[in-house]
């Protein structure tokens, strides 16, 4: 790729970055969320397609499906075992140039001859049949909506199945009829999906291919009905009434997840939730399971992370939250405008012999944990009285902290941060007992758990 092509590609990627939503907020968290967002620095690993099988060993077939915006649909089909590739593109139009710029023009919004955003699904028919793919297709969007999916409105977002032969057409009609019965039982209306022969498929611009991989901090739009094929457990989960009474008192975190596969949801669990042991519980809900709560953030994107107090949303964000972003939001939510927040995020320092120090200096046997993440940091076995007025330890729990050079204020020091949350804890000095280190730690950013 020459330099001009590279610059053009990068420019176009950023031009479509609107799919990553700016967080909304309420109450005091509004100003805080702006500061949080300004502070974010994302350094994320690149991903790529999984290794594809050699076509010679496979029975390849393909079908072209339209279910609204192709970004999320492409990733969903790629997750089906037996699918070899999923390619975003345009089809089913005439007299309109097949390009993103053209099909999204205002004049084509209601143009019945406009191309649809589609995905060409290439699959190994010896490993997955077309019926399974079409079931996934219907479960992943709302086929009763005409020329739209959620907030995406226009003929380019229409629901359509474009077949390559009569056998595919027969299977598509059969699966559609089956799903219509399920939708009727669930109280939904008539399927608006158009089934017709494929005339020509136009591959979309390169910046649209693997869009969710190239933009790893966005969200997955979830417009599905929650109605499932032959899976009573999943259907029951989607329609199950959840008792939200415990969320009406105190502070809680609610993560809205998808009924189907959502790579951003999995990434949030892997990078944040799976290691979280904080005192404010994380609760998982579907968008249909928020009854009784006062939610202001729109819930069609997954994940959406909501910070709730006494049943009312204080702060919410659509889309993936990095660990840094999550813990800054949690810090504002849990600590408020306090000395602890200043220490954790503005590298402040506790007053000598502060209240928390006096509480923690003589605790029984136990462990001191990160006040936000709950991760173990220091053991009482390693605590000693340095006489400085700050908690002192000879070592940290293995792998729990990060050491960073700190040359501010004309001093040469080593800063200590929590590995899980990234919050500032204090400094380490070489003047501990018997030649050991002295970890000088701010008590306000710790909690104590007795053994």
| CATH H level, superfamily name of the largest domain | Peptide methionine sulphoxide reductase MsrA
Radius of gyration, CA atoms, in whole angstroms: 26 Å
The outline comes out as: elongated
Can you list the strand order of the major beta sheet? 8-7-2-4-3-9
**The level-1 CATH class of the largest domain:** Alpha Beta
Proportion of beta-strand residues? 15-25%
| Overall mean confidence score, pLDDT | 83
Number of helices: 12
Tell me the distance between the termini: 60 Å
Overview in brief:
This protein is of the alpha+beta class and 451 residues long. The chain folds into three domains: 22-39 and 227-335, 3-Layer(aba) Sandwich (Glutaredoxin); 56-215, Peptide Methionine Sulfoxide Reductase, Chain A; 349-450, Peptide methionine sulfoxide reductase (Metal Binding Protein, Guanine Nucleotide Exchange Factor, Chain A, Beta Complex). It is built from twelve helices and 24 strands.
Characterization of this structure:
The protein has helices at residues 3-15, 29-39, 70-78, 100-103, 130-139, 166-185, 211-214, 232-239, 263-271, 323-335, 339-346, 355-360; strands at 24-25, 60-67, 83-91, 116-124, 148-149, 152-153, 159-163, 194-197, 201-203, 220-221, 251-256, 282-285, 301-302, 304-309, 312-318, 366-370, 376-379, 383-384, 391-393, 401-406, 413-418, 424-429, 438-441, 446-450. It is an alpha+beta fold and 451 residues long. The longest helix is centred in the middle third of the chain and has 20 residues, at 166-185. It has 3 domains: 22-39 and 227-335, Glutaredoxin, CATH 3.40.30; 56-215, Peptide methionine sulphoxide reductase MsrA (Peptide Methionine Sulfoxide Reductase, Chain A), CATH 3.30.1060.10; 349-450, Metal Binding Protein, Guanine Nucleotide Exchange Factor, Chain A (Beta Complex). It is elongated and about 85 Å long. α10 (323-335) runs antiparallel to α11. A hairpin with a 5-residue loop joins β21 (413-418) and β22. The chain has 12 helices and 24 strands. The protein has a 6-stranded mixed beta sheet with strand order 8-7-2-4-3-9. Strands 18-19-23-22-21-20 form a 6-stranded antiparallel beta sheet. Strands 1-15-14-11-12 form a 5-stranded mixed beta sheet. The model is unreliable at 1-58 (pLDDT under 50). 25% of the residues lie in helices and 25% in strands.
């Amino acid at each position: 790729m020459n330099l001009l092509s590279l610059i053009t590609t990068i420019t176009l990627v950023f031009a479509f970055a609107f799919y990553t939503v700016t967080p909304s907020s309420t109450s005091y968290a509004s100003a805080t969320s702006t500061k949080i967002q300004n502070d974010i620095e994302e350094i994320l690993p690149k991903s790529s397609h999984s290794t594809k099988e050699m076509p010679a060993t496979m029975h390849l077939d393909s079908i072209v499906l339209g279910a609204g915006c192709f970004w999320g649909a492409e990733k969903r089909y790629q997750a089906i075992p037996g699918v070899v590739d999923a390619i975003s593109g345009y089809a089913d139009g005439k007299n309109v140039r097949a390009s993103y710029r053209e099909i999204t023009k205002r004049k084509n919004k209601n143009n019945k001859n406009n191309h649809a955003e589609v995905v060409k699904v290439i699959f190994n028919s010896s490993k997955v049949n077309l019926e399974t793919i079409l079931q996934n297709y219907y479960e992943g969007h709302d086929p009763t909506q005409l020329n739209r999916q959620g907030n995406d409105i226009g003929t380019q977002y229409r629901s359509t199945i474009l077949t390559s032969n009569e056998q595919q057409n027969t299977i598509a009609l059969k699966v559609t009829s089956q799903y219509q019965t399920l939708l009727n039982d669930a109280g939904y209306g008539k399927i608006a999906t158009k089934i017709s022969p494929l005339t020509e498929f136009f591959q979309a611009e390169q910046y649209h291919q693997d869009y969710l991989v190239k933009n790893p901090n966005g969200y997955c739009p979830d417009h599905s009905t929650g109605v499932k094929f032959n899976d009573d457990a999943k259907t029951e989960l989607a329609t199950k009434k959840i008792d939200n009474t415990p969320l009406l008192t105190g502070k809680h975190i609610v993560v809205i997840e998808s009924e189907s596969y959502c790579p951003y949801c999995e990434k949030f669990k892997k990078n944040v939730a799976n290691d979280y042991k904080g005192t404010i519980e994380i609760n998982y809900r579907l968008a249909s399971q928020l009854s009784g709560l006062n939610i202001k953030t729109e819930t069609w994107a997954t994940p959406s992370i909501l910070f709730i107090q006494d049943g009312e949303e204080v702060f919410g964000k659509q889309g993936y939250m990095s660990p840094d972003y999550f813990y800054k939001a949690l810090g504002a939510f849990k600590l408020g405008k306090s000395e602890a927040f200043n220490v954790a995020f503005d590298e402040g320092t506790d007053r000598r012999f502060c209240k928390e120090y006096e509480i923690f200096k003589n605790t029984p046997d136990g462990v001191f944990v990160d006040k936000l993440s709950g991760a173990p940091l220091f053991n009482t076995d390693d605590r000693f009285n340095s006489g400085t007025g700050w908690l002192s330890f000879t070592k940290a729990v293995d792998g729990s902290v990060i050491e960073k050079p700190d040359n501010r204020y004309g001093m040469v020091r080593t800063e200590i941060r929590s590995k899980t949350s990234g919050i500032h804890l204090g400094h380490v000095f070489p003047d501990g007992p018997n030649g050991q280190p002295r970890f000088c730690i701010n008590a306000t950013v710790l909690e104590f758990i007795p053994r």
